Amino acid sequence: MGHHLGLRAAISSRLPREASALVIARAWYRRLPARLPGSTRSQSLCSRVQPLSVRSILAVLVKTHTHHLSMTARLVLVIGDLFIPDRAPDLPAKFRKLLTPGKIGQILCLGNLTDRDTYDFLRQVAPDLQMVKGDYDVDSPNLPLSKVVNHGGLRIGVTHGHTIIPPGDADALLIAARQMDVDILLWGGTHRFEAFEMEGRFFVNPGSATGAMSSGYWPDGEEPTPSFCLMDIQGDVLVLYVYQLKTDANGVENVSVEKVSYRKNHAPAPAPAS
Length: 274
Hints:
Layout: H1 15-18, E1 23-24, H2 26-31, H3 54-65, E2 75-79, H4 93-98, E3 106-109, H5 116-125, E4 129-131, E5 146-151, E6 154-159, H6 170-180, E7 184-186, E8 193-198, E9 201-206, E10 227-234, E11 237-247, E12 253-263
Parallel strand pairs: 2-3, 3-4, 6-7, 7-9
Antiparallel strand pairs: 1-8, 2-10, 5-6, 8-9, 10-11, 11-12
Pfam family, one: Metallophos_2
Domain Calcineurin-like phosphoesterase: 77-234
InterPro entries: Calcineurin-like_PHP_lpxH, Metallo-depent_PP-like, Phosphodiesterase_MJ0936/Vps29, Vps29
């Protein structure tokens, strides 16, 4: 198995200087201060966090793509595990305020939408709504378990993840990405945001857009953080914006944004050792 940088482990202090692959893991958030909109940060593995507000980021992206909303260059929303109204009453109001029509070209929903009103809302945000079946989408038997979409030079695989065993396992995800022959694999099911690069492929879990509890194990005192991702795709380069609704010590909710990048490696894979 190829070198896997820091998945579910604390990232060493030398990693940003020595590693070429991008890793964003939950352990990173514990180790480093949160990068809030308006803050600055030194150079990361593949990108620099911009001191932009949430609205500034969206405004810049929309302006960039006003005349380029095509399959080769457009904004793609990645969202999933909403569980409305079973585990959450609605999308967070601050998220709804951001997700307005005319800004996003396509939505990739990773399953467990479970609510017609939210489906209609997402279709208003972007008529091109691509969905896969989650483990609780029992009323949608015709949804596929996985699909592949093409954007520019990137093949993107979409799956909920409940068919990947063990759930969220890096090796199992890599096998799925190989089987689907994709550069990027989007998966859900764990309700935790996670992203990492492994053997030249990029893996992204957007988490739960509503912060719905999952049936898996959660440590005492830890709760899901509502999150979704926005992908800005230009050729073989993906810039990922991660939106998280965080609550401060005073109980005030604010949307934080992280920006990271992935570039497809066109170099041929090394031949296996004999």
